[in-house]
């Protein structure tokens, strides 16, 4: 039978119960976390900035305090758990650090921020060990809710909400005319905007539901079932809320729910739904887990015989594993630096003569943070065509091409309203490319906009592919030059196909010149 060396046994026992050794580990952990937060302060402050400006993710402010409270309420559990350095944490820190680097290179805030929390978890794991992380798995994992994630759900959930409203209102005997997110019923007009999507309710429900499940259940199956319910219930509840608001406005001749008061009704309804969910869930509540009795365990990291010098060596390795990525990013950024953006000349074509932009409707896409803009107009055979380019270089948070705030048309645009979208095929750069089409209407007429991203010489309409192309270009030291390219044309009702044909002809005739212009601009 294997026997533990007396010295090793004393070391293991010390790791479990020696207050001085535990205080030292906790002090080392606190100092390491402070260093980590300072070293990656840009990523941390990028998250805080989103919490500040977006109500959807304002819950991010309370995640860390709740996590600390969850650990504190289980502080007695640590007395029976060995504390030791762990190689697993170092591996996690390295993997998360590589993901952070890729996220920064691709300007994908969500990846960088999830990786930031991943590195933090890896650091805690490396310093405190697997046993501690297992004991406090939920409070540590709860930190991932700090990451503002889920904005990509807005369009899909707006579509779902719109379809449900149309179906439910018609089922109630009220006729509906729908054009995009605009709904017209006999008593007035309604528009489904981002606030109607239910994403805000969904995010809040997932966070609160996960916390409730952890505090009230011990069974993993029950916890998962309650979290699933916390995802499904708010989606259906939001559909009912939106339908109820439309019907309340209709039945009251728009005296109720037609203004800001419908937001109050929405949150009150959401609160009732969540309380009902908690009340139902409380029927299966389980007793709280008791703290284990303190016993001696073998260490999980450097081994029972590891001494103080060995542990501090492991700490140094862990800090290096999560700290090396910032300097590496700075090095890669320097490889692709360019000066100010200077647009190259765009060659004309016989079929399209330069024209005054005043011939086009007054419209600007909702893009910001670009280094330069290009706007021009041409007169075609039957209508004017506009070209807009938002050019990005030396991108950073808030000044990047792919950003949730950058859109061809925002849902609350005061002039234009989206009516339809599509994916036309265009001949460009010697190949067929898929662009994005958006149709919009205002009090003065209609317009169709075709758009695509140009990233390092490649065309795409996918945010994800654009990020991949951007990361590859920066890894090759080619810089991060990229652009949002839009061509647009006005039309009157009934001339949609003619306007689309004009844009197709414009891209075919001017495409080579456009590609050459962008390539020359990126080389300057």
From TrEMBL:
Topology term for the membrane: Multi-pass membrane protein
Claim: Cell membrane is one of the keywords in the record: yes
GO biological process terms, semicolon-separated: proteolysis
InterPro entries documented for this protein: EpsH-like (IPR013426), Exo/Archaeosortase_dom (IPR026392), Exosortase (IPR019127), Exosortase-1 (IPR017540), Methanolan_biosynth_EpsI (IPR014263)
Domain of life: Bacteria
Main localization category: membrane
GO cellular component: plasma membrane
Any one GO molecular function term: peptidase activity
Keyword Transmembrane helix: yes
NCBIfam families linked: 8TM_EpsH, EpsI_fam, exo_archaeo, exosort_XrtA
Name of the molecule in the record: Methanolan biosynthesis EpsI domain-containing protein
Species, as recorded: Thauera terpenica 58Eu
């Amino acid at each position: 039978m294997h026997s533990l060396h007396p010295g090793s046994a004393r070391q293991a026992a010390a790791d479990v119960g020696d207050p001085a050794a535990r205080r030292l580990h906790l002090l080392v952990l606190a100092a390491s976390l402070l260093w980590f937060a300072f070293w990656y302060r840009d990523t941390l402050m990028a998250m805080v900035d989103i919490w500040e400006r977006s109500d959807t993710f304002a819950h991010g402010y309370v995640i860390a305090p709740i996590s600390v409270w969850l650990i504190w309420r289980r502080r007695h559990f640590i007395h029976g758990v060995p504390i030791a350095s762990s190689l697993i944490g170092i591996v996690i820190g390295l993997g998360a650090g590589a993901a952070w680097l890729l996220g920064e290179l691709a300007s994908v805030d969500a990846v960088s921020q999830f990786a930031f929390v991943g590195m933090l978890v890896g650091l805690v794991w490396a310093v405190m060990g697997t046993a501690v992380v297992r004991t406090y798995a939920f409070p540590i994992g709860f930190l991932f809710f700090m990451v503002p994630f889920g904005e990509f759900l807005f369009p899909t959930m707006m579509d779902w909400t719109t379809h449900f409203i149309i179906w439910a209102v018609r089922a109630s005997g009220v006729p509906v005319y729908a054009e995009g997110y605009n709904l017209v019923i006999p008593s007035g007009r309604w528009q489904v905007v981002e606030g109607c999507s239910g994403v805000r309710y969904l995010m809040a429900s997932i966070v609160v539901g996960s916390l409730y499940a952890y505090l009230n259940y011990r069974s993993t199956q029950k916890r998962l079932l309650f979290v699933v319910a916390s995802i499904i219930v708010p989606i259906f509840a939001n559909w009912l809320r939106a339908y109820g608001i439309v019907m309340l406005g209709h039945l009251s001749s728009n005296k109720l729910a037609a203004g800001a008061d419908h937001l109050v009704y929405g949150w009150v309804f959401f609160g009732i739904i969540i309380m009902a969910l908690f009340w139902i869930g409380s029927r299966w509540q389980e007793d709280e887990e008791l703290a284990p009795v303190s016993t001696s365990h073998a260490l999980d990291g450097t081994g029972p015989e590891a001494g103080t010098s060995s542990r501090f060596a492991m700490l140094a390795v862990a800090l290096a594993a999560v700290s090396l990525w910032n300097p590496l990013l700075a090095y890669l950024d320097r490889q692709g630096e360019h000066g100010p953006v200077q647009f190259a000349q765009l060659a004309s074509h016989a079929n399209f003569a330069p024209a005054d932009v005043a011939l086009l409707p007054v419209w600007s896409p909702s893009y910001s943070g670009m280094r330069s803009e290009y706007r021009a107009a041409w007169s075609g055979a039957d209508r004017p065509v506009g070209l807009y380019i938002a050019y990005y270089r030396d991108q950073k948070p808030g000044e990047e091409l792919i950003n949730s705030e950058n859109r061809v048309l925002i849902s609350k645009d005061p002039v234009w309203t989206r009516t339809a979208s599509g994916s036309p095929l265009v001949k460009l750069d010697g190949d067929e490319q898929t662009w994005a089409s958006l149709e919009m209407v205002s009090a003065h007429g209609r317009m169709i906009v075709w758009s695509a991203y140009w990233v390092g010489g490649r065309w795409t309409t996918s945010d994800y592919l654009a990020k991949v192309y951007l990361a590859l270009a920066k890894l090759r030291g080619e810089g991060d030059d990229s652009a949002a390219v839009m061509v647009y044309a006005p039309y009157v009702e009934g001339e949609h196909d003619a306007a689309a044909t004009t844009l197709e002809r414009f891209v075919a005739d001017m495409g080579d010149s456009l590609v050459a212009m962008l390539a020359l601009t990126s080389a300057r």
